[in-house]
Amino acid sequence: MLTVEEMLEPISFEMKEFEQRFRANMDSELPLLDKITHYIIRRKGKQMRPMFVFLVAKILGKVSDQTYDAATLIELLHTASLVHDDVVDDANERRGFFSVNALWKNKIAVLVGDFMLSKVLLLSIEKDNLDLLGIIARSVREMSEGELLQIEKARKLDITEEVYFEVIRQKTASLISACCEGAAVSVGCTEQAANMRKFGELVGIAFQIKDDIFDYGSPGNIGKPTGLDIREQKLTLPLIHVLNTVNRQDRRELIHIVKNKFDDSRSIDRAIRMVIDNGGITYAHEKMLAFKKEALDLLKDIPDSNAKRALIGLVEFTTNREK
Predict the structure, then answer these.
(1) Measured between alpha carbons, how far is 141 from 301 in angstroms, rounded to an integer?
(2) d(CA 178, CA 200)
């Protein structure tokens, strides 16, 4: 598997240029807002989404000014969604640092997220990027609908596999899908836009399944399961599979834990062990690999290049990462 440095090598110039442009788009004349946005920038993550934009753009054509706009728009949306999510989830940490709402309270955090969304609209209009705005707007709608669908189903604990995949397709995969579709549009390769949209969707689904597995561990290496999803009464793929396959007594016990014992550590440990012992992790892992394979199959007709190898490496990273 390629290292992150090797994946970045074909787009090292583009990522440095992107960081400068993104930072400029986050600037504000309001001191408080400028202080908060710079706090966010200094604690940025791996920036996987801009990497998808530039790698897809490079395998299909030549990176353009619109490609930088696509990466900036998507990263602005992603960052805004994280700030808003922390408010909704009442989370005090993000990537090991205090969240915006923990430091500046909920009202200011919501307004900061709104500021970033306004920058998405302004950048789209000022640069006449209405095609990219359409892709971004669809992603915003799907992310919102996916979150609401999950909340609705979680109340009744009746999430089927079909509903689960629809939730993660909208909540997580829609943004990676937008990265890949936007990249194709930005280099004028519109005939590949639908294909890249599907590619990003499949990668996003595999990415989210991997996150769900982390809550329990992984096949052959359980690690330190947290049970956080169970504590938050979230039905993810490992648990859904076990609920659908165990006997009635075990199913009743698991549902009782999720409904009534979600704050009891001993009960959570019992649920985790039941999911592991009944093949929930193995099943989810196999599903994740199937989605990854389907995604990589969509790249077969694209000529080999350093960028393509790096893109494949980035897909592999989504399913092999350790955190």
Answers:
(1) 31
(2) 7
157-205 confidence digits (pLDDT tens): 777 899 999 999 999 999 999 999 999 999 999 999 999 999 999 999 9
Query: Which 3 state secondary structure label does DSSP give 221?
Result: strand
Map out the domains of the chain as residue ranges: 11-186, 226-299
User: Burial, 20: exposed, middle or buried (Cβ in 10 Å; 0-12, 13-18, 19+)?
Assistant: exposed
Residue ranges with strand state E in 114-229: none
Question: Class assignment of domain 11-186?
Answer: mainly alpha
Tokens of 118: 């306004």
Catalogue the E-assigned strands of the chain.
93-94, 97-98
Whole-model pTM: value is 0.91
- Return the ∠ at Cα 196 (arms to 190 and 201), rounded to 5°: 140
Q: Of all residues in the chain, what percent carry a pLDDT higher than 90?
A: 68
Structure tokens at 290: 């199937």
Distances (CA, A) of 269 to 235, 251, 264: 16, 16, 9
Distance CA 93, CA 242 (A): 31
Question: Is the separation of the CB atoms in 174 and 138 below 8 Å?
Answer: yes
